[in-house]
Every structure is written in C-alpha cells, then in structure tokens.
Amino acid sequence: MKVLFVYTNINGLHADSFADGISMIMSVTKKAGHNIKQVQIFEKSEYSSFKRDLNEFKPDVVGFTSVSSQFSFVAELSEIVKEVFPKVKTVCGGIHPTLYPECVKEAKHLDAIFRGDSEGPFLNFLEKLKKNVSWKDTDNIAYLENGEVKKNKLGPLMTPDELDKLPHPDRDTFGYSKILERVGLASFHFTRGCPFVCTYCSNIGIAKVYGQSRYNIRQASPEHSIREIEDVVKKNPSVGSKYKIYLTDDIFGLNKKWRREFLALYRERIKIPFICLLRCDVVNEDFMYDLARSYCFKIQFGVESGNDHVRNNIMKRSMERSTIVEAFKLARKYNIRTNAINIIGVPGETKEMLLDTVKLNREINPTTSNVNIFYPYKGTPLGDQAFKDGIVNIEKYNDFSNERRESVMDYSPEWLETLKYFRDNWIKEVYPFYNIKHYPSLFKNTKQIVGSIPVVGNFLKKQYYKKKHIKTNIDAVSSTYYR
C-alpha cells in the first residue's frame, strides 16, 4: 500500500518541532513493507503543492494527525484529497480525534479517525484495505454511518515490553536534520502518559477515554531509549557538537528505577547537555543531584499559576506554593537553569489572581519564564466545562489556530486585552529590570565601585545573564499539557 502522511502546523505554536506520534506510525508502516511519503504544510498557500504531491505519489491512503487548532485544516485537506482521488481513504489520528471522536462530523471527507495507541490498529486497517475486505471493524477507529458516530472498541494500551519492540520514530522521512537546523535542539520522547489529573491537560482526557482515573506512565526500557539517541547522533553528528538534547516527556524520570538506569547509561554513552520537563513536587535532593551529574543543564517546570485557588482548585495541581519555591532553589543549588511555564486566562481567574502568578515568578526567579493563554481542549475536564458553561466563543473557536497566544473564550473585551497584554509583555512584567541595557551607566563613573559591592554586583550579573538568555529560550516549550 502507498500511504501519504500529512503533518500540518498552520500558524501553529510548534511549527518547526518534531512530531513524535506521526513519526512512530510512519516507522511501523514502513517496517511493515508499505511505501510511505510525508508532506508538511505550514501555510494554506501550500495547498496547491499538496495537490501536486497527491498526483505524483498517487496514494492508497492519506493519513493526517491533528491537535484541536489544526483540525479545520485537516478537514479542508481531506476534501482536496477526495477531489483529486475520490476512492483514496482518508484517516486522521492524534490527540484531538482521541479526545473528541465526534470531530469526524466536522470533516465529512474523512473516512475514519484513530484513537489512542494505534500502531497495531493502523497496520490492521491497511491490511484489510489491501485484501479488499471491510475495515469498519478495526479497533480504535470511529467513523460516520448514517449521520451517527460509530466508535469501535479500543485495543489495550501497549505494555512497556511491546513499546520496547517498536522501531524508533522515522526521523528520516520526517526530515529531522532540517528541524535541527531550525530549532537547534534534538528532541526525544520516551514515555506515554502522566498520572497527574490536571484539568486542562490531555493526559487526564486520555485516561477517561480508556476508562481510567489516571493515565499511568508507560515507557520502553532505558537501553531502547539510549539506542534511539545514539542512532540520531550517529546520523547527525552535529547533535552534541552543535545541538543539545531536549527530552520532551511530560514528566521526565518519574519512575525512579528507570530514571537511575537511564541516567547512568546517559552519563556513560551520550554525555550531551539536555533539557527536561518536570513537576516541582517530584524533585528532591537525590533527583536533582542525579540530573546535575548527568548533563542536565535546564529544567522546564510547570508553575502554571501563582494563585493557590487557581492552581489547586481550578487546575487540580495539588501543589503548595512553598513546594514550587523550593524546587527552583534546589535547581539553583545544583547550577541547573530553569524555565517557568505558566497559564493565564482560565475560567474564574481575575487580574489579581493573574498578578499572583507574576509575583511568584519574580520570587522563584527562573532563568527564563514563559506564559500561555488557556485554550479549552475538548475532552479535558476544564475544556469540557467551559463549553458546557457556554463561555467559549464558538465562532472564533471554529476558525482559530493561534492557540496559547490569544483567547477563544467569551470574556469581556477588557479582560481579553489584559490577557493579550500579559502574553506579549510577560518578560517585562516578570523581570522588571529586563529593558535596562546598561545598569552601571545609571551610576556615572562608578562601574567598578558598584560591581565590587557583593550584593549589588551579583544582582547586576544575574540581570545581565537573564538579558542574554531570555530571548533565545523563552519559546523553547514543548509539552502535552494542552495537546
């Protein structure tokens, strides 16, 4: 079978990043002997070239992946497929179809959507097409029949042993070397799931899809993961010499046994500085020491909100303010840089609550800080509640790709402007001295004197350090909190 995979990120937040999910499906499809090709679409102006790709490749199946803000483009592109080749099967996987299978009603030119772990179900689907038998009993799919959404049973989640047997993601077809040049980081994702129950996050939504209260972590062995990094470094020698590594697992190393074995292998065989994502309440002295001696140079912490009510009652983070403060102190103790990830604009938040987040970021003093505007993802508790309460601007939501940078909520114009201001001016608000270019010039002819004062001198150096690093790192956020 000839399968054309399509990755869209039109006006998307992570347009240049590596899509691990579709790359894994591509890898198992290629390994099964199918002929695959991928196209990436970042502008609607590229629709015409997509038609050319269709005519040149003449696929049997076109497979899309989608997050919520990209699904309208998937609907448009699937219509183009049917215009060119009416008999070609069009399918879509990814987080949006998994959490909201009813989306198939919004894309009448999609034959089916896939939900959850779909490596096996997708290969079964292709095999049935090849044999010219009905594919409609395939596990994990949903499709329209007489205007109703038919949802097939979900196959079991893949076990760690099964994940160990999967090939590594297909970075060759995806064009990984070009991503390295654009992004400057080599990304890897080794785990599936997160056991925490944050209301805005896709992970608790996936747990619900599988009838679970928590979406517990599954991961391939440390050896399998290290070999994946080694394979990438071998094909891309610039990783290490020029580019650092980004471990994009939602929470790195939550399994202590796995973490210790992985980091021991990493110290021995990789030795490349890396970034990882963590919760403030999972780190301790032992964890931080192990990270520091294993080439971790930066941690991205989900702070989310500085207001206790927003963080713990609305977001269900179950995290004390003191825990957040201590995590950043611990990182500084071991000379590990930090990035604080924050969310503003959740339902029920006020300006005073938002300012609590600014204040907490000033207190924890991260190396960099980033803020996202809340987006109501269907299938997540907070997203579903927002739609139920009628506080989403449906017209805007249906034609919106600017997720996390603007709001689709039906808030007052004043509050929407406030959210946009803080999104655009976050650095200035968190680091009030950021725009002062030459601190010593404020004290004419006293540069050496001021710099020699221990407290003041160290302060000036710290602000200078921020100024040099914030712009290059502020957007280096990749998380499935929303996806």
Description:
This protein has helices at residues 20-31, 47-57, 71-84, 95-99, 119-130, 160-164, 171-174, 176-183, 202-209, 222-235, 238-241, 256-269, 285-292, 308-314, 321-333, 351-364, 381-388, 394-397, 413-424, 426-430, 447-452, 454-473; strands spanning 2-8, 35-41, 61-65, 89-93, 112-114, 141-145, 148-151, 185-188, 191-194, 215-219, 244-247, 274-278, 296-304, 337-344, 368-373. The protein is built from 22 helices and 15 strands. It folds into two domains: 2-151, Rossmann fold (3-Layer(aba) Sandwich); 160-473, TIM Barrel (Alpha-Beta Barrel), CATH 3.20.20.70. Strands 2-1-3-4-5-6-7 form a seven-stranded mixed β-sheet, sandwiched between helices. The protein has a six-stranded parallel β-sheet with strand order 8-11-12-13-14-15. A two-stranded antiparallel ribbon has the order 9-10. The relative contact order is 0.09. It has 483 residues and is of the alpha/beta class.
What would you call the shape? globular
Total of domains: 2
CATH C-level category of the largest domain: Alpha Beta
Helix run count: 22
- What class, by secondary structure content? alpha/beta
What proportion of the residues form beta strands (DSSP E)?
15-25%
Briefly note the CATH topology name of the largest domain.
TIM Barrel
What is the first-to-last residue Cα distance?
A: 30 Å
